């Protein structure tokens, strides 16, 4: 009985969250990912650096007794580091059951992007940061870059992390 | 009857089966010299099998009932004719136990009504029933009787034991009054209660009936109260519930200093508040201790399983082994205990297969033909030490070195200078096996490296000591519990670190202590009589050290850490004090982090990093040659 209820709830959730995207910006570009991955949006708490890891993994934060790793999305996308300010946000997401905090410049909006407005990203070269992008979404006159969160942590990176001296 | 009830019962059944195993091994030991087995032991075994039969019948697990019933029959006969017992009978009982275990396991994983699920079991049941007849024929019983028995073995579950019993002299009492309520209404329990009743109250058999009638219910009452007190002693709790309790207590332990040392009240003079705060601290500490102890169970559970393993391995290898167990009351965290099973199995098998010599070899070298393995558990501070000591041939330095050289682990010229304990370390190298051939016990090269890995994940250590010709000792040291440790909180620039208190030897204010710079990034100071290496934590994580700016060191602290007799000093900016630390794992996103044992949340809300001192020391000493 319990299980039935749960699965029913889930499907309801899925429906209401369908086509909803969370938009954030880095530099002057707008990015978005599916809202269903998002658990929470937070102001940036104190970060404890974990020594000897990839530079984009900034360290860990304490969210109500849980220790959660945080990633600077700018650094992940090979942009230059920008000092954190009062609008810097942490987007708490869950990827394959692993919680992760994403540090972004600012959060804009939650938008509905129907699937007919989404075009798969043109394959322009295989540059590093284009790997994270899977599509573009048209919202009015603007275009949101849709990112594939799973790709933020991939095999390639584990190799990268291994290569860092001291490990 | 729900599936949950069955599952709950199966856990109970497992416990009974464990007891049976223990008693059977005891049985075997006591009859090794050909002496007859103790009547009391047979009664206990009989009762256990009977309990399994009775309760499994209640849950409709027919396979278990049939098997247990056959074993019970055998035991019942042995009780009165102990002279009929031989090695084969014992083997039958042990195999019956294995089948019962198999049936219980099968029922747990794939519920199918508890009947036999493979041919072997049916065949064995037939064999067991034959055995039953056989020993009865041996005792020159009329043949009809045995046929009668065989029939009953399969159907008339309870009648059989009753008729058997009533036929006996001791039970004469009930022949005259066959309509005692006990045997009619509570058929299920007769087997159980009558024999024990008679054992204990044999005194009354010869007295008058009315008195017996009074004593019968009393005896049952006694049994009941006994059972009640056992129930009171332990309650089964879902481990999930326990875990969440432990989590919450962990949070309370962390929050307590957050509240009592809150910066808002730090500068206020609140005498009464301090008093109550102190009281609260004490209570929280008690609460934490009790919660942790909830997960602690005696190590005996695993040790007794080792007896069977040793017996089987000894049989397979043809060696004579005397397993001496001590310290089985030592308590250890349940999750750690479970992880200890595989390593122990491996080490004990190794000890018998490689360590102990054959009886002939032992005689030649002037030892007792029977080898001894001591399995000992002791609590030492916040660790449990488990020791497996054999008196076998010991490790051969030469063989191990040859193997290590052939694997390219070291050069021939280095071999001479190695200390014994460094030589034994090679045993833990993956794929390292000195066994000449692959047996079904060992020699496949999957070995001690896995043992070490298992123990290391528990934050424990495995060490080996050996004297050639005299034996080998494996020592496993594991923490009592994984969740909470005592730690020293220190700060280095804006990062907080925790050093497990076990590893901390001393803290020194550097002040005017002279520091010697041997060369870049390699400093040492005089500590007691020795020069010890000191390092900057930055360096250990692959960053540049600020130790080179000697001037800034003046106001820093040196924590002297020790692990495995190796000492190293680590420099920090500030020491914040000692406190209980709830260990939280580091996200798997951070791969290959060597020097960290985990994370924690400190009173100020910051995440702190728990240092893995042993690894740090090894890492440092291997990168710096002193």
From TrEMBL, chain A:
Residues 18-158 form the CheW-like domain. Pfam families: CheW. GO terms for biological process: chemotaxis; signal transduction. GO terms for cellular component: cytosol. It comes from the Bacteria. InterPro entries: CheW, CheW-like_dom_sf, CheW-lke_dom. This is Purine-binding chemotaxis protein CheW. It comes from Leptospira bandrabouensis.
From TrEMBL, chain B:
CDD domains: HATPase_CheA-like, HPT. The keyword Cell inner membrane does not apply. Keywords: ATP-binding, Chemotaxis, Coiled coil, Kinase, Nucleotide-binding, Phosphoprotein, Transferase, Two-component regulatory system. GO terms for molecular function: ATP binding; phosphorelay sensor kinase activity. One of its GO terms (cellular component) is cytoplasm. Residues 1-107 form the HPt domain. Residues 3-30 form a coiled coil. The modification Phosphohistidine is found at residue 50. This is Chemotaxis protein CheA. It comes from Leptospira bandrabouensis.
